[in-house]
Amino acid sequence: MQEQEILDGNKLIEEFMGNTVYKIRNIYFVKTSEEGSIRLEHCKHHSSWDWLMPVVKQIGTIKVNGIELGTEITGSKDLYGFVVFGTHIYTEDTTMQEAVWKGVVKFIKWYNKYNKNK
């Protein structure tokens, strides 16, 4: 994955999780509390299950048309996927974590578009 792809994806994830992302002098920050912020580049959704799994769980609780989506991570050997409501969002010959991260980002893009068009 390219650095810009990671930054863009992690920015989407932080906003999806309800955090404020802001920019000062071409550097993005994420407001983590009333008193603190971290640089967006220090977010590790793309490289840490501890960062990524709360997002997967949040997606699983979303209701669309009254139906809870649910999530599932699938995979064997070199083929992995991220499944939301029975639909593969992303599958690629890569690591499981990268496939899930890309699936999460793709889902959030769809979800943001869906909510915009409501």
The main β sheet shows up as: 3 strands, antiparallel
* Number of strand segments: 8
Rg, Å, rounded: 15 Å
- The sequence of SSEs as H and E is HEEEHEEEEEH
Count of helical segments?
Answer: 3
What characteristic shape results from the CA principal axes? globular
Describe the oligomeric state of these chains in a short phrase. Answer: single chain
The average pLDDT value, as a whole number, equals 87
Can you characterise this structure?
The protein has three helices and eight strands. With 118 residues, it is of the alpha+beta class. It has one domain (3-116). β7 (79-84) and β8 (87-92) form a beta hairpin. The mean pLDDT is 87.
Chain-wise SSE layout:
Layout: H1 3-16, E1 20-24, E2 27-31, E3 37-39, H2 49-61, E4 63-64, E5 67-68, E6 71-76, E7 79-84, E8 87-92, H3 96-116
Antiparallel strand pairs: 1-2, 2-3, 4-5, 6-7, 7-8
